[in-house]
Specification:
By secondary structure, the protein is of the alpha/beta class. The chain has 12 helices and 11 strands. Helix content is about 30%, strand content about 15%.
Length: about 325
């Protein structure tokens, strides 16, 4: 059951009396080029936008961590020529329901299974960026038979978003310190909300990765729409506790397009700037190959992590040309 919610206020979490005086619920929203709708999936109400002709093949766009559906807003006009496009907000992001204590790959993946079954109602090509790329692979492995035709994994953090990965850097050696600081200074459901404290702590943190990220004067819009408990679940390893990447990758069942964007491994520390190292990308391809699926690997070392937002034409061209080769 769906309903349009374009322009409507969102029934967000209210600040509790015991919360710090500085705490304010950050969830304020802005108008976008596409109407927004909601689908009641049981535990969560999922927010999404839709474009393109229903006669086109379905494309499900899955944003990365801290991103809402509108990260794809510039790419959607290019994609809707060939696809019936659905861009979603995952639980804990955008206008979708926040679910304290319930942020796992399995829960988020099953949200998407229900969304495909109840809203899209036809086989999809799934395309996810970053954490959304993990979920695109998850759908290839664990969705209902016939739901997924192919999976695009746009610069996913295979292994590097785990606390004890099978290969390469862990989240502690990658983007994890940012999630840790968000957990401390913003808090689950923004219950702390100390943006100034976060900026000051990041400026003196020993992690060079943390110091490389600029912090604006105010939280950006996408972060206002994000539950920081998401990041804590990654930092502490609970998000994939029952779905290790090694297991996930050996169970994919559809063709996969794996794009790999800008990455640097610092020689002095071994820390990773980027979604995954070359070693981790090679291991991911090896495991998916063992599953018996066709894997197309595209190395784009000059591409931004969220290529769909930074270079939407390049993203649309890569995805469209690959998807046209898929069997119907």
């Amino acid at each position: 059951m769906t309903e349009s919610v374009s322009g409507q206020a969102h029934g967000g979490l209210k600040a509790e009396a015991s919360a710090p005086a500085a705490f304010r619920d950050p969830r304020t929203f802005v108008k976008h080029d596409y109407d927004e709708r909601t689908a009641d999936l049981g535990e969560v109400v999922m927010n999404y936008a839709e474009s393109g002709s229903p006669s086109n093949p379905a494309l499900l766009l899955i944003p990365g961590q801290t991103e809402s559906w509108w990260g794809y807003e510039k790419a959607m006009p290019l994609l809707e020529k060939d696809f019936h496009v659905f861009a979603v907000d995952l639980r804990g992001q955008g206008r979708s329901t926040w679910t304290p204590g319930r942020y796992t790959l399995d829960n988020m993946g099953n949200d998407l299974v229900r969304f495909i079954a109840s809203v899209i109602k036809k086989p999809v090509v799934s395309s996810g960026c970053s954490s959304g790329g993990l979920l695109s692979a998850w759908l290839s492995a664990f969705a209902l038979p016939g739901q997924v035709r192919g999976a695009v994994c746009e610069d996913p953090p295979f292994f590097s978003s785990e606390t004890t990965p099978a290969t390469g850097q862990s989240i502690k050696q990658a983007i994890g310190p940012i999630f840790r600081h968000n957990a401390i200074y913003l808090g689950d459901q923004w219950r702390v909300g100390d943006w100034e404290g976060l900026k000051k702590a990041a400026a003196v943190d020993p992690s060079p990765l943390l110091r490389m990220f600029p912090f604006p004067a105010e939280p950006p819009q996408n972060l206002k729409e994000y539950d920081p408990e998401w990041g804590r679940a990654f930092w502490e390893g609970t998000v994939a506790k029952n779905c290790p990447h090694e297991t996930l990758l050996t169970q994919v069942k559809t063709p996969v397009l794996l794009t790999h964007h800008a990455r640097i491994v610092f020689p002095d520390s071994g820390n990773l700037m980027g979604a995954m190292s070359d070693l981790q990308a090679t291991k991911a391809r090896e495991l998916m190959g063992q599953a018996g699926v066709a894997v197309e690997y595209v190395s784009l070392p000059d591409a931004a992590h969220a290529m769909h937002a930074a270079d939407p034409k390049k993203f649309a061209d890569v995805v469209t040309s690959w998807a046209k080769q898929l069997p119907h």
